[in-house]
Amino acid sequence: MDDRDTALLRAHEHAAAWLDSLATRPVPPRATVADVVAALGTDLPDGPTSAADVVDLLATACGPGLTAMPSGRFYGMVIGGSHPAALAADWLTSAWDQNSALRTVTPAHTAVEDVTSAWLLDLLGLPPSGAVGFVTGATTANFTCLAAARGEVLRRAGWDVRRDGLTGAPRVRVLVGAERHESVDLALSYLGLGAPEVVAADDQGRISVAALEEALTDQGSTSADHGSTSADRGPALRDQGSPSRPTIVVLQAGNVHSGAFDPFGAAVEVAHRHGAWVHVDGAFGLFAAASPTHRGLVAGYEGADSWATDAHKTLNVPYDCGLAIVADPAPLRAAMGMHGDYLIQSDTGDPFEKVPELSRRGRAFAVWAVLRALGRSGVADLVDGFCRHATTFAAGMRALDGAVVLNDVVFTQVCATFGDDARTREVVRRVLDDGTAWMSGSRWHDRAVLRVSVSSWATTDADVRASLDALARASAV
């Protein structure tokens, strides 16, 4: 016990020193992978080491190799810094060490998950009867929701994918916008659905409703084109005749470059009219719904069938935490649920029936903590603050010689060029070398861009000013 207490004390001291350093330390790391490996040592010791000494070695060796992602000056990816209440709750989560799969076994976490789920559905304006699964991140949230979608659209076509698999099944058609995030394609690959069909998008990345309707009207190839017939697919499907092709439409809340949102009202109506399941990938943009000022960006999205987002992005809880939300709990439980004789399962349903993992940490604790700390108005202020900072960044960039902001700044993303690709890449390199802020390079519309993503509760007006000053220095080339 003394070893444990000393180790925890050392960890607290190192953590506090790290957090205190964020206001002034350079954002990029100052050590390479090789540097950190050398500091850690490569030989596994023959004997034990005290827990406190292990913590000291880990902190001192890794410190120079850490990127100041929780800093108010990190804009390189959509990464939220950990809110103090969520961070503290996450420490408790590790200390409590609950495998939060079963309602009866872990009543504390289940209660928090139930309360938090209701708060999230209310805050986001989603159906109150929906199911919320706490997963690792938006990629897994997309996978979870699309698994529910796959099972349901095949069920409607008379096919039980849980029992019969995909061999011989009607081929599921998935339509996506041209600028969806690649994690959607990855989730579809995991699910054995293959590459999606791409629908045209406008210059901000918003899906074209006219193109979507045209694609849906053209049913394309059916399952028979892939080597199966109704006779192969069992009596349930034969009795129904030839159903229209099982279809999923994936929409987007927050384009990773422009921040733009698909026109949900019209797109959802068109998709549902053609019998499709509608999924919304809203890794960082879903929380626009929590702001009265920005709620219009997601107007009509509540009519979809499922939604994916990250709590460790806009909501600023520690890594890792994503949210898979499905309007009808039945398809989600059908896709994710299981039975084990050794499991003490509840007649009212268990948390593990909404997620891919049976073993999982208590992610709802940190989400509950940040929602309880901020309240409804605080979450709205958080979102509005990100958007205000993004607008300030855009205005500051436009004042720089040769800079052009390429996107309509409607949410938290800003993309700019500084002339040709070579000069833009050089500006990105110089910003990172300066160390004041982290702004990543990317490629959008076949051009090199500098991308700013404002996502941290810790970002202040002073951080934005200092970051723009660093960008001005970097662009003076």
Automatic annotation (TrEMBL):
InterPro entries: Aromatic_deC, PyrdxlP-dep_de-COase, PyrdxlP-dep_Trfase, PyrdxlP-dep_Trfase_major, PyrdxlP-dep_Trfase_small. Gene3D superfamilies: Aspartate Aminotransferase, domain 1 (3.90.1150.10), Type I PLP-dependent aspartate aminotransferase-like (Major domain) (3.40.640.10). Keywords: Aminotransferase, Decarboxylase, Lyase, Pyridoxal phosphate, Transferase. The keyword Lyase applies. The modification N6-(pyridoxal phosphate)lysine is found at residue 313. Residues 218-244 are annotated as: Disordered. Belongs to the group II decarboxylase family. It comes from Cellulosimicrobium protaetiae. GO terms for biological process: carboxylic acid metabolic process. Its cofactor is pyridoxal 5'-phosphate. This is Aspartate aminotransferase family protein. Residues 218-231 have a biased composition (Polar residues). GO terms for molecular function: aromatic-L-amino-acid decarboxylase activity; pyridoxal phosphate binding; transaminase activity.
